Amino acid sequence: MKDIATALAKAQAQIKSAIKDTKGQIGQNRAYKYADLGSVFDACKKALNDNGIAIVQRTDFCGPEIWLETMLLHASGDSIAGRYPL
User: Fold this and answer.
1) Of 7, 27, 33, 71, which residue is most buried, by most CB within 10 angstroms?
2) Is pTM beyond 0.85 here?
3) Which residues, at least 6 apart from 42, have a Cβ–Cβ distance to it below 8 Å?
4) The pairing of beta strand 79-85 with beta strand 65-74
5) What pLDDT does residue 27 have?
6) Is there a contact between 59 and 84 (Cβ–Cβ < 8 Å)?
7) Over the stretch 18-52, which tens digit does the pLDDT of each residue have?
8) Which 3 state secondary structure label does DSSP give 28?
């Protein structure tokens, strides 16, 4: 876990803010802009790659529920994962 922690700390220092380039609207008079998933990934991809970190996502079925597992994998073999119900 030591290697991925060090790499994530370095990557966080390099990650730029995501560009809010997608428009949304609530009702007739309330427009807003947000960073979609592509913009968020573009903002962090280079920093993660430069520090040997890959992102892997997969779905898993547990009874009637579907879960999304996201893993951060480091070149050293270290990893961090989280699971979220869909």
Assistant:
1) 7
2) no
3) 18, 19
4) antiparallel
5) 87
6) no
7) 999 999 999 888 999 999 999 999 999 999 999 99
8) coil
